[in-house]
Protein: Homoserine kinase
Amino acid sequence: MAVYTDVSDEALTSFLTDYDIGDLVAFRGIAEGVENSNFQLRTTQGDFILTLYEKRVNAQELPWFLGLMQHLAGQGVSCPQPVAARSGAMLNTLAGRPAAITTFLPGVWPRKVKAAHCRPLGQALARLHAAGQSYAPVRANSLGPDAWKPLLESCRGQTDSVVAGLEAELDAAFDHILPVWPGQGGNPDLPRGQIHADLFPDNVFFLKNMLSGLIDFYFACTDILAYDIAICLNAWCFEEDGSFNVTFARQLLLGYDDVRPLSAQERAALPVLARGAAMRFLLTRLYDWINTPADALVTPKDPLDYVKRLRFHLATETLDGYGV
Amino acid sequence: MAVYTDVSDEALTSFLTDYDIGDLVAFRGIAEGVENSNFQLRTTQGDFILTLYEKRVNAQELPWFLGLMQHLAGQGVSCPQPVAARSGAMLNTLAGRPAAITTFLPGVWPRKVKAAHCRPLGQALARLHAAGQSYAPVRANSLGPDAWKPLLESCRGQTDSVVAGLEAELDAAFDHILPVWPGQGGNPDLPRGQIHADLFPDNVFFLKNMLSGLIDFYFACTDILAYDIAICLNAWCFEEDGSFNVTFARQLLLGYDDVRPLSAQERAALPVLARGAAMRFLLTRLYDWINTPADALVTPKDPLDYVKRLRFHLATETLDGYGV
Structure:
């Protein structure tokens, strides 16, 4: 939970004069969010979200993210829509930070995932993928397979503080992922496009079990579409005790197929993609776990959940093995 | 900035069925706030604030606070108004915590105080005091003069880590406050009533330099009315460099007098009340500074600002000495 940069009322009022969205009515920091500072902003014309981009986001990439959100919203995907200033610019500066205003999305993210969430989730993910096909700019996945070994290297010597033997376990796990990764030994022809790449429950809003929108596109990138499903299998389909919920996974895949039927090749690749997704979140959590100062505003997430998920995926060779 | 207790969407939906305020539309944690967990809540009927009361608030005192807010709102003071459940109860339970819903107040708190804020502030404070006269229940000030020596005792031995010699300085300062405190050597007949007792800039909302409301009544108590002005002198009338802003103080007192003219006795007591107010905030900040664990969600406020303010007040015997 975080607001890293505070914004003075005077600076905000001045900033808003560059926009045609009415006068300031209310302004509160939002506790959710880890990477950026987010504020709920009300004007005489309605509700908006103001985001100040903090250091972990590469400012040069912001136009790509905002362009994607604008494109997706234009294609009917319910996501925050960047609001342009009078100048036409979606990205401006406030309190010394790149800043953008987006539309406010109603809904509440599910603290406890239920089966009823997973089919709408799959449908929304497939719609995002379909809508992204016509967004041409490319952003490489900076947390893809090439980033994993360097991430582990930067934690080397400290990894076993999380679980004894973890470092050797991860070294060995790479041999079961990288050589069979799509394009690196695995199928090189899986459909690619714009993926969300971080579609955890706190980025998906629901109203009465109807999905009302997707948020937080700041890990989005151009990658294998089915990898996004593999991320959701990790993020949505495990119980708190670490067990895999087959019902949730079935609903997720059913929902996806409702909109964009997965090919046999994509289905076949899901287990290795799921291993890779577990590895990716394990490694960034491991890195944050080791490198977050004790007095940081944000409590790092325990990487242990993803150690368990990785082990589960490594023990499973095919989608049948998941019971899906 | 803090949300200490998260609330599941299911628990919230269930909680809301006890209220006649429509269906859930959105729900976000608010970053501001130190003592309790606050959420911005939108329903099909409008906007509300949901507060979960955390451990530092005495649950038995919550009806007093909520009753005061209801009373003040009923008297035309712009403050959050508790929303009763269908049962009539303003205080209920959510996620194992006492919880209340209040109305949403538009406005933005001033990050940088200007003279234009101070007269409306004084007027609002006087209106609060006038409106509070008809709220009969009494709550003693748990952070009044009787609490100060025990607070310092609990920090003894660690106080000088803030500034060398601070412990002896505070011991000596008591001799210039307690024996002349109203009722303890000073004038025993100053008007008393319900005071806010924590009216810092972040608890006062403005819209275009018009004061739109007061929030956070969880330090309110029954005490000397002029003590609330003394708190505002400390909280609003010092520059970042520690210098006293006479213009702000004049505007504050002018505003107060607009609504409820201060008596000569109250004016004469202001310097010692201002010393006491500086001591009170100095001591709680000192306590938090020493006792907040490094990994706490909230960064404690530096007590040093209040050491400087206390020194300033101790050097001033009369309101004329302030230049007011």
Remarks:
- The two ends of chain B are 35 Å apart (CA to CA).
